[in-house]
Amino acid sequence: MTTLKITTVNGEWMNDWFTPDAQPAAFKPTFSRDGEQGITAEAAGRLAKMISDIDADIIALVEAPSRAAELALFVNEYLSVDGTATYDFVQGDSGGSQKLALLFKPDRVTAALTSSTDAAPLIEPWLADVDGDGDLNEYAFTRNPLCCTADVDGARLEVVVAHLKSNFINQGRAMWQDPARRPEFIRAALRNRRRIANEAMHIRRAMEQRMDADPDSAFVVLGDLNDGPGQDYFEEMYLAHNVTDILVGSPYQPERLFGHAQADVAEDQRFSAVFDDFVTEEPQRHVLLDHILLSPALMNGGSPLSKVPGSGRLEHDAWAAQIAADGSARDERASDHRPASVSLAYA
After folding, report:
1. What DSSP string describes 112-134?
2. Tell me, which fold does domain 2-346 have in CATH?
């Protein structure tokens, strides 16, 4: 039995490291993020070392640079052995300066973009009420999911890389702490979460269609969902739902439930990001934003590929190994997210 390791990695604004799109693709010696200067080689080297230490066969990369030529520079300079790149890649064309990409080891996996016809149910705009005003309007993903098809020794695996709408609100802390502006912040927060929830629902519906066509289809949905298990303040107090529950499916159709790989991780280690929550005044809040969801066929043996029991993990050690000083500066860490992984077995 052979295993295939799949990981999702957040590159944390890799686009900062490169020249503007109007210029030939090249690394900048230094970059700026949050008003601080960083050394590009330090940040890129730490990200590459973390990726190499994890040693996955397939990597979903979110917050990848804006151009394929830039990602090629990163792979060729930082992810190569004796001049040969360890990974090939497919990059999406949606997302502005935060693209989505799929890296894969070409000696183990062949991957390509899913045909536009097959991807259309997932990426085409749809009707939704994202403002809570009772009106349906056309809505589209902030970043279209990257849909790929991978071949693993003749076994087909569909991969959907997602980076859902951000919860970020400009000047949010100041708005929340100002009683006169707090209602404005709440409305913006709810609008963002409705958008995230609608994007999750659309992915779920597309995957339902895929299972209708082939109940034994093998697919994985992974990436930064900008939401974790349980409810945050706004989901609990206003919306009464979260995003990952929408994606996983209904318990009334247990045969259609997705497997959540990170459920294998001990509860106190089940987080990928840490931040100070100014809404709940919770310092160093631990949240699982990065997820790997597996189709039923990968969980119940309906596919030639199947989840290795207990293999879901969060790569805390590989992440921590790349922290310098306190890791607060961008070039002192590989990323602000811990990667998530799972392994699949095949004959």
Report:
1. EEPPHHHHHHHHS-EEE--SSSS
2. Deoxyribonuclease I; Chain A (3.60.10)
